[in-house]
Amino acid sequence: MERHGVTQPVLRLLFNSGVEDLQNMHFSHINNPNYHQVFLNGLLVGTTVDPARVVRAVRTELKDGQRIFEDFVDDGLIEYLDVNEMNDALIAVHETDVNAKTTHLEIEPFTLLGVCAGLIPYPHHNQSPRNTYQCAMGKQAMGTIAYNQQKRIDSIMYLLCYPQRPLVKSKTIELINFEKLPAGANGIIAVMSYSGYDIEDALVLNKASLDRGYGRCLVYKHAKGTARKYPNQTYDRLMGPSLDPLTRKPIYKHRVLDQEGIVFAGARISSKQTMINKHMPVVSQDSASPTAQGGQNWETSFLHGMDKKEAVLTRQPTEGRSREGGLRLGEMERDCLIAYGASMLLMERLMVSSDEFKVEVCSDCGLIGYHGWCQNCRSSKSLANIKIPYACKLLFQELQSMNIVPRLELARYTQ
């Protein structure tokens, strides 16, 4: 009898041991005395001519006392605990730590670490944030993903051309066979001050190593197309390459297509070239001009170009290369400008070219006025015009909404 009603593994074991499947054998074998019937959970699954062979392997393992991992789990000797159960358990890491109050014992001390943390050799020699960073970045490392990686169809796949197994390994690396499918290469690193291009975490790579293939990778991208049929009896069609009317050769966009309209195997595809020449039927619609007038019509041209666009909230340049946004001047770049003493360049980058904003400030109370009037002093005598970043003005208003009043102390500007 198979426990828990899981019969597929037992059926596979029986068929591998010489049991003939009931669905494939002749009906005369069922009552033949030379064929022995095999039952599983009370159901006839087949026959065999060598019943001793079926049970010999199982009997040998039982006599030798061999048990698999699942046997210990079924008997409750090995137990999985989640985070909530661990709060009420006293778990010992080593056998010497077991006492009368201990509820569980770790199978191995290294099982405290997960797979990503277990791949790090000597993690106790690193700062704890470094181990945390590696656990996050180790999942994104390029390498070899499977033995059938050349035949897989993934949307995008990165493969390292020359992966190497690590020279220093841990127990986890051996258990998960990381040596057979590594993700990385062994590099020789020198921690030194060399030129000005190695500040903090920057690297200066050896060109000879790069020329020999260090860090080189392959990128596989998957593209697919679907030919559909539509309710109006139309369908998508795949067309061959379009020919140039003068040279009678395929145009540049269709040079990698075969006669069926699909890119041929081994083609070198350049930018803006078609891989699938699919023609889709489009249902026509009635259209009309907004003014319903023919001939020449008056039209407008927008004033705001891409160089004038800015974020609505902060009034700073838009972000992102795709939107032709501004370049970010971060904290480290700011520190370099401060150390260099380029204060005017710093002000030009962080305020003039970003979000310069003119405000009126009362020199008596230090609060921002509005249209020549200080609401706090109820006066218009002591207002001065200054320039501040618009983000600074937003900060003052945020603080005022929390009943925190920032006040500006003004000094007379002298040349």
TrEMBL record:
GO terms for biological process: DNA-templated transcription. GO terms for cellular component: DNA-directed RNA polymerase complex. Residues 116-285 form the DNA-directed RNA polymerase subunit 2 hybrid-binding domain. It holds the Pfam family RNA_pol_Rpb2_7. InterPro entries: DNA-dir_RNA_pol_su2, DNA-dir_RNAP_su2_dom, DNA-dir_RNAP_su2_hyb_sf, RNA_pol_Rpb2_5, RNA_pol_Rpb2_7, RNA_pol_RPB2_OB-fold. Residues 69-101, 325-409 form the RNA polymerase Rpb2 domain. The keyword Transferase applies. The keyword Nucleotidyltransferase applies. Keywords: DNA-directed RNA polymerase, Nucleotidyltransferase, Transcription, Transferase. It is an enzyme of class 2 (transferase). Its EC number is 2.7.7.6. This is DNA-directed RNA polymerase. The lineage of its organism: Eukaryota, Metazoa, Ecdysozoa, Nematoda, Chromadorea.
